[in-house]
User: Fold this.
Amino acid sequence: RINGQRLWDSLMELARIGATPKGGVCRLALGDLDRQGRDLVTSWGRAAGLTVTVDRIGNVFMRRPGRNGALPPVMAGSHIDTQPTGGKFDGNYGVLAALEVVRTLDDHGIQTEAPIEVAFWTNEEGSRFVPVMMGSGVFAGAFTLEHAYAAKDAEGRTVKEELARIGYIGEQVPGEHPIGAYFEAHIEQGPVLEDAGVTIGVVHGVLGIRWFDCTVTGMEAHAGPTPMELRKDALQVATRLMQEVVASALRHGPHGRGTVGMVQVHPNSRNVIPGQVRFSIDLRNASDELVDRQASEVKALAERLSAESGLPIHIEQVSSYPAQQFDRECVQAVANAAARLGYSHMAAVSGAGHDAVYAARLAPTGMIFIPCKDGISHNEIEDAKPEHLEAGCNVLLQVMLDRAGA
Amino acid sequence: RINGQRLWDSLMELARIGATPKGGVCRLALGDLDRQGRDLVTSWGRAAGLTVTVDRIGNVFMRRPGRNGALPPVMAGSHIDTQPTGGKFDGNYGVLAALEVVRTLDDHGIQTEAPIEVAFWTNEEGSRFVPVMMGSGVFAGAFTLEHAYAAKDAEGRTVKEELARIGYIGEQVPGEHPIGAYFEAHIEQGPVLEDAGVTIGVVHGVLGIRWFDCTVTGMEAHAGPTPMELRKDALQVATRLMQEVVASALRHGPHGRGTVGMVQVHPNSRNVIPGQVRFSIDLRNASDELVDRQASEVKALAERLSAESGLPIHIEQVSSYPAQQFDRECVQAVANAAARLGYSHMAAVSGAGHDAVYAARLAPTGMIFIPCKDGISHNEIEDAKPEHLEAGCNVLLQVMLDRAGA
Ligand SMILES: NC(=O)NCCC(=O)O
Ligand SMILES: NC(=O)NCCC(=O)O
Assistant:
């Protein structure tokens, strides 16, 4: 059993770096605070005798040797960068739970057959630099190191400059680092476990995600003198599409998701008919086929509305993350461990992308979810219960021990 | 007949003050450019022998004596402040057309029985300081001088400070200035005249206007892990109301108008379900009763949606301008003058508020509309044809002469 208090204390200590007045954390990828966070976690790793390796995209691996150094490591981790209004647990929990597993093995003098590694991946959040899940994405070959290096923040600083500046541009070629299996413990970031009163989510896979930008172009005109029948009101057309994004998700099974999160109206003045509306579309589902069907329905309505109204509608895909099933054995191992430890558990699906999605392309992978308060995440009020954090970490300890061989 | 070239040249000269690269004008109320514009117009007035009076809210009256100094003046005017991306004609046309009437009377050595006055009112646009139609509103007693003085721009500067700074805080008490009749020539700011191929709009009145702010409060949550049935998506509820604003206007006759011009989504992030949406509602119609019915329908749907969804919806009225019928004799005089001069004309209603709305509370009032290109206004590409500008000014000359007595 792991030490829940020690895990909690480490989480709270790391959360001090970038702490916000409302109890959250703002520690954007590759800023000074990210460096401080990285320095603290690696100092804890070194104190536990781990060997630290950094690759060229700044992913960090901290290794505890196994009896058989030829075996690829059993790895666990997540990320320590946060959203601008982020919480203490998103990502950080997965990294510090992995460290707590190592500390527990040390407490009991347990040596494993395969090495154990604690990993944290660069810029999972994508708040400061896009794409999201950058470090694990480069590691898995989803996009190139050069592409990631060139990404710029709002001030025009590149990932490469910032990695160099904070001293986390390593020698190792991303991906040239074998993994035997990968586990990631994470808060659910949704309300399902809490609603069901269940402690452990056995994650079977991650939903497929497609992101689009949609632009409806009308003609701005004065709200008073322009009769209704002579208007080209971009917002009136856009709102019908925004509703279809949700309606279509509801027609496509329990895992269908449709969200319009971002809207920009031009010129955004009280007495001017909107001349242009841009908005984001986020579609998700359990299979890529289902996501594609949602996208087709939204696009079909866009064509119909454009023909009816005469207003051009442009829909452009900006990102796509295929649905990912996790390894059957890893999933079963999580379920077995939860049962053995006496924790209530249920099958779960991850609606959000995680570094585990990319890891799953390279090695057998599993995820462990625990409840978070009101399902809220990406928010300073994000919260999780110490007993849930401890339970998830105990499951992680079990699956890593099983996999690495005691 | 007025001198169309002189009118055009004056419009173009005034438009140089605050000219924008795209051919428009940015001359915000009470800024340095507004002072330059005021100085130019009053210098033209003085050159024509007019006596200039400024009142405490900066309204400017330029008087040409009549044979009978005891008669209240026949006044014409508008405003010379512009939108941030304004055009050359909105407001400026009404002021310079009135000045052109004076110049034409001088050319022909015509003396009138009643005095003639050229007026321009402070801050009609309301872009820098709210409320809109500030100078004429204080003049008509719609709100107090103190209320107007206290209005602040985005940098925190008050109307009173800025009036004093540019030297246009006069002695006269606003409203203590008799008016015999008021006429305002203006571009239509809508597409109806151009669509109909008609030169002169005989304005019967101004639509009633109600402005509301609406806030729908949901709960922000991650777009991935949050199942559809557990969401409180503020945007999905808001978009239904936005559509009702338009649908209700369409159900209430030819003059019904409904516009959502401004939308703010919080936190406005691609993968976050909107937790709050604020938007503006602009309702207009030919009678206050019809506007109120539109408002009732929107509010009724808001209550139903709030009950269905559990999301609080708050609708707050921020402004109200009653519908205003213009004086029957003044309206008829405009129609007669257009007919006499051989211009095509049609009955029109003003969908936009104008200084004439407030003037109509104090004196018999009429308005003359001319077409503007594509009905576009509040835009740097605002444009009007010299022959239309000339025609409207000729109508203005006739009605002023008729009223003042030659
Ligand atoms: N975990 C997480 O927030 N990932 C970001 C990408 C997504 O929206 O799923
Ligand atoms: N003419 C004009 O734009 N007035 C502003 C108030 C309105 O929206 O009608």
Residues A 224, 271; B 132, 352-354 surround N-(aminocarbonyl)-beta-alanine (ligand 2) (CB under 6 Å). Chain B has twelve helices and 16 strands.
